[in-house]
Sequence to fold (76 residues):
Amino acid sequence: MVRIPLPRRHHAWRRAAAGVCLVAPVVALLWVPWYAQDRPQLAGVPFFYWYQLAWVPVCSLALLAAYLLTRHPPKP
Fold:
């Protein structure tokens, strides 16, 4: 059986998904008017601060997902 290599566009959806993973935190943190408020508070900390701190683990997971989507399998 002859194996035909997949076209490069086959992996385009993986690159697009990785791009979404990288752009989503940037957009969420640069859209300041959406989260520039004091309420609700969590343990006395205004929303503005804990919203930004909540994005720290989310950003690391997004970076991990982008890496996993774009890494190349090892060549034999």
